[in-house]
Write the structure tokens for this entry.
Amino acid sequence: MLHLTIDGVPHTAQPGDTLLHVLLAARRDIPHLCHDQRVRPAGGCRMCVVEVEGEPRPVSSCTTIVAEGMAVRTATPAIESLRRTNLSLLAARYPAAAVEAEPEQPFHRLLARYGVTAGGAPWQERYADDSHPYLGVAMDRCISCNRCVRICDELQGQFVWQVWQRGERTHVGSALGGSLADSGCVSCGACADTCPTGAIFDRRDAPAAATVTQWTRSTCVYCGVGCQMDV
Ligand code: FES
């Protein structure tokens, strides 16, 4: 058993626990975006930062293992300011309409909590994919938390998603490079379940505006009369 203090209050933890795990168990409302307890932590979003006495700078609590005698401060003005700044960077090119349409998404709730407005220059080049019968993709909402990639690989063992390119051009896409329908996806839905923004979503749950419907002129494949119906 290890001993630490959280905002001055004594707590205990098990060896090997991450700091975020202990803080959440202690009912501290620590914001976290790239964390999903079912997969390995990535430490990418920096929303879970806290101050640990003796550390020269804030640490991401999801990647920090608890040590004996730690003194942790979770919500100082400096920490809250840092979280707001990190959130602002993620929101800078995020579609405001998505926030309005689905305020309950975890990322959107955090924007509201920290008073951060989404918008600015959108990711014009980011793709949407409605090829899959159950899962929709709207990558203009992707904040590169990579939870979809990690849960598909580590939990489901399917390796459908991959991070492509670098820097500003970094994006998540099918590992095979084509549409989701051609990716070998087994429709488990784990990626949609973990996504904190709705960039990957269950099409059956999506608001009508996010469901792409397209009328097309077609001949029934099993008939051959050639009516050319609108379907
Ligand atoms: Fe810890 Fe994202 S939740 S860095």
